[in-house]
C-alpha cells in the first residue's frame, strides 16, 4: 500500500483537489524569508503552482513520479508547508487520514475490479480548469471494463 499512497500523493501534488487558498494574518508577522506581513493582510498560496515549482520538487517537477515519496519502499510524507494539499499546522485538515484511507480503498477496489485505460493516448495533457475544486477542462476520457474474474454471475 506504500506505492498506492505515494501515487495518490503524487497525483494530488500535480492536481490538488483545492488549487489555492488564503488566510488573513491575525497579527503582524514576518515570514521565514524575511517578508513582513501586516495584520489583516490576505495571504494566498497556490498548491497547484507549488506542485510544479522546480525549487521545491527538482528539475522533474512536471513529471508524475510516485517514487519521489518513497524511501526504501516505504511512504515518506513531505512537510505540509512544501505540500499544502491538506494545509498544515493548526489548520491541517481534520479529515486528512480518513480521506486518504478512503481514497486508497477506492483505488484498490477499482484496480482489482476494472481495467481502466485512457481513450486519448496522444501527448495532449489534461488542462486544469480554474475554480475552487479541481476539475479538468473537457474531462479525462477513459474506457472502463469489468475484469473477467469480477463479472456478475
From TrEMBL:
It holds the Pfam family p450. Heme binds at residue 93. Keywords: Heme, Iron, Metal-binding, Oxidoreductase. It comes from the Eukaryota. This is Os05g0445100 protein. Its cofactor is heme. It comes from Oryza sativa subsp. japonica (Rice). The keyword Heme applies. The keyword Iron applies. SUPFAM superfamilies: Cytochrome P450. Gene3D superfamilies: Cytochrome P450. GO terms for molecular function: heme binding; iron ion binding; monooxygenase activity; oxidoreductase activity, acting on paired donors, with incorporation or reduction of molecular oxygen. Belongs to the cytochrome P450 family.
